[in-house]
Write a structure and sequence with these properties.
By secondary structure, the chain is of the alpha+beta class. It has one helix at 26-38; strands spanning 9-11, 43-45. The protein has one domain (3-49). Strands 1-2 form a two-stranded parallel ribbon.
């Protein structure tokens, strides 16, 4: 998959029966945020990242 085909990046922590087993590292999230902004791809952070991501969650949608 080429990143050129990406219209939207959605990121969040694991849910379901694996909830809490893998907590995303802030450095991982920052790399995804930096990539998305660099490539001008909208980014949506799921609510389960509250408490991991400092400040307000980024919740952008692709333009229609």
């Amino acid at each position: 998959l080429s990143y050129h085909a990406l219209d939207w990046v959605i990121v969040g922590a694991e849910t379901g029966n694996r909830k809490g087993r893998v907590i995303p590292k802030l450095s991982w999230l920052q790399m995804i945020v930096d990539f998305s902004y660099h490539e001008n791809i909208p980014l949506w952070m799921k609510d389960n990242l509250r408490g991991i991501w400092p400040g307000e969650l980024i919740q952008e949608r692709p333009s229609t």
